[in-house]
Structure formats: C-alpha cells, structure tokens
Write a structure and sequence with these properties.
By secondary structure, the chain is mainly alpha-helical. The protein has one domain. The protein has 4 helices and 2 strands. The protein has a two-stranded antiparallel sheet. The mean pLDDT is 79.
C-alpha cells in the first residue's frame, strides 16, 4: 500500500534488497537508517525462521510516513 500511495502522489520508489538479508536489513535496518519504504521477497533464513509463504513479501514503512500514506490511501478510495 505504501508503494501505491507514493505512486499516487507521483513519487517513485526503488527497492534495495539482497539475497541474504531480507527481514534483518531490507525491511528493518534500511527503513530505520534511510527513512524510506522498502520491500523484500524474503531470504532463505527469514523464510526458514518465519511463516512467510512462497507467494508473500514483506514491506517496511517508516513510522514518520504513516500519516502521509494514510492520507494518500484515503485519496485513492475516492
């Protein structure tokens, strides 16, 4: 949803992901350090340690962007 909200607001996203650091780095550390929304498809270790299914992905959204994203989602509902 965050990515859709950004697109609706004419902002573009690029994802930063790696094969072996899905949850730990891609959707937690990266989001915290850079303040940007990021997504990951999950690495081997993450999928082994969680219940993330093959057809699921993760998204990290910075706390300070929640209001903006909520506003954009409301606009998309119109």
């Amino acid at each position: 949803m965050s990515l859709l909200a950004d697109i609706y607001r004419e902002e573009h996203n690029s994802l930063s992901t790696s094969v072996i650091q899905a949850c730990c780095v891609d959707v937690i550390a990266y989001v915290y350090l850079y303040g940007k929304t990021n997504a990951s498809f999950g690495c081997y270790g993450c999928r082994e340690a969680s219940d993330l299914k093959d057809d699921e992905a993760m998204i990290g959204i910075p706390y300070n962007r929640f209001d903006t994203i909520e506003e954009a989602i409301k606009l998309m509902k119109r």
